[in-house]
Every structure is written in C-alpha cells, then in structure tokens.
Amino acid sequence: MMQALPGPYLLFLGDISEPSYAKTAFGLRDWAPERCVGELRCDGAGVTTGLAPMAPADAYAAGARSLVIGVANAGGHIPVSWMPSLLQAMEAGLDIVSGMHTRLADVAPLRDAAQRLGRRLIDVRQPPSGIPVGSGRRRSGKRLLTVGTDCALGKKYTALALARAFAARGIDADFRATGQTGILIAGGGVPMDAVVSDFAAGAAEMLSPDAAAGHWDVIEGQGSLFHPAYAGVSLALLHGSQPDVVVVCHQPGRERVLGHPDFALPTIEDTIALALQLGRRTNPAIRCGGVSLNTSHLDPTAALRLLDDERERLGCAVADPMRGGAAFERLVEDCLA
Fold first, then answer.
1. Can you tell me the distance from the alpha carbon of 114 to that of 122, in angstroms, rounded to the nearest whole number?
2. What architecture is the 9-123 domain classified under in CATH?
3. What's the pTM value of the predicted model, to 2 decimals?
4. Strand, coil or helix: what is 328?
5. SS3 for 17?
6. 161-192 residue pLDDT tens
7. Cα 175 to Cα 164: distance, rounded to the nearest angstrom
8. Is the pLDDT of residue 210 over 90?
C-alpha cells in the first residue's frame, strides 16, 4: 500500500472555480509543503493555493519532477480542457500523478505522449490486490475514525492533526489514508472509493490490521453516512475500521450537501447518533471523542466564540484542529481517555 512518488510536485488546479474541489492541492500545500514548488492553472481558474505560479519548464528547473493533479472533482474525470497543460508538463520533463477515477493511461493523448517521451503516468487511486471480504473480526490495538456531516470539510485534516498530536505525546500512532490526497501526503493507503463495494469493509480491515495494545491507527474518513451518493463508502469504512473512537467533523454555515443542493446537511447530533448506532455492529464499545469544526471562514474571535458555544451546547470537546489551543488539547485528551 506504499509507493514512492517522483517529487517535488507542481500542483495542477485545472480550471476549477469551487475551492472544495481543490482539496488535493490544498492538502499537499498544508501537509507536505516541502514537496510543492508551485502551481499551474488553466485560463479561467478561480482557485489558487497561493503558491508561486509556474510554467512546467520553470517548475522542472526549480526541481519539480512531477505534476500532481490537485483536483478532486465530482466523478473524478479529466476534462479535455486540461490536455494542453498536461501535455506541456510531460514535454517539460514531468511525470503525471493523478488521484482521479479516470486512469491516466486510458486517455489516449496522455498515453501516447508518455510512451513517446518516456514519462510515467501514476494513478494513486488504485486499490491494492488481494483485498478480502470484511470479516467483522475484532482486532488488537486502538482505532480512531473521523466521520463527517458532508464531504470536503475537514476529516483528513482532523485525522492528520490528531495523529500528529498523539505522536507528540509519545503515543505510537499512524495516520491511515483512505483517499487520494491522504495517500499523496502519507505515501500509501487505500483509496476506499475505488474499491469494489463487496470488498470495501475488508479494505478498511486491511488498512488497520492487528497492532500492539497501545498503538493507535488514526483513520481518515470519507463522505458522510447521510450522503445521497457516498454513504456506502462511509458505512463500509465505519464497519471495517471498527473504531473505538469517532470524531465528527463539520463546517459551520454549510447547510446543503456539497454538489447536491436538494439535500440538507444532517445535524452534528444526528451524525453522532447514527455513527454510534451503525458502528456498534462491529465495535459495541464505540464512543464519540468530540467534534471538529472547520472555522477557516471565520475570524479568530468569532471562531473561538463558536467553539465555546458548541462545547456548551453539545456537552463534549469541540475544537478546530488547525487553530490548536486549549480546545484542541481537550479534544486530544478526550479521544485518548
């Protein structure tokens, strides 16, 4: 489940205008900045990572060895409008790394150019072979899973921050990636949404195997149990992970499901209740360690006020892991309790 990727990276943002679809680029910028030399955007792009804009040739001269498609759009497809930029990158000497559902080698212009130029086309959204059917067997060690009220609101960031905080306290902990961005950050994992559904729970078991009693696997959540399209991935991950602790992730102010505006977001309380109800199927001792709020759209004063208010309202630890502070320390302590 581990693979070496050619770096450093030039992050490609295509022509997207919805920031939530750029979570791969943002994740690499925030959690692997030493591997990112700049960004490349198509005309009309409305999203930026804030990294230096670079043409592929300039990025190669600056040390980049691959262009990473930093987009996770609905359906994971590669638009025709991206072809000139991707071909230019290969001409400049860069391999292409993608976490899209569309396989790079299935796109004829990319496949032909790679063969002609001797470039690599690397798909990280490729499940490992030999995934078993889920067994439901209890495993040794401890597990934490982040679950969400929706997609793209902080499950990966929360898992990364908690794994780092556990390690800082001297606790043996591993971040377990379940999506393309996490895999690019961690260097390995299982892309859960690319696993055949019958084997998805088994893939989660494979990702977090038996471990020492004091070891924690901090597992990146996917989708939402309430999502009209992706709930199946979330449920398989919940059953297969058998988490001892769940942390519910939410973005205050988001009222409709991303990409599905006809559906209202569930409440935090309903998300906690459903995660615990369904999670008890494979771990009767499952509990909620607290709530993670993505307050990136709020100023510091408003964010801290909201965290305090929600802690009082919900009666549990509530924090924004990216802001840290006492609230996050309490969340860490309650997860480990």
1. 11
2. 3-Layer(aba) Sandwich (3.40)
3. 0.89
4. helix
5. coil
6. 999 999 999 999 999 999 989 999 998 899 99
7. 8
8. yes
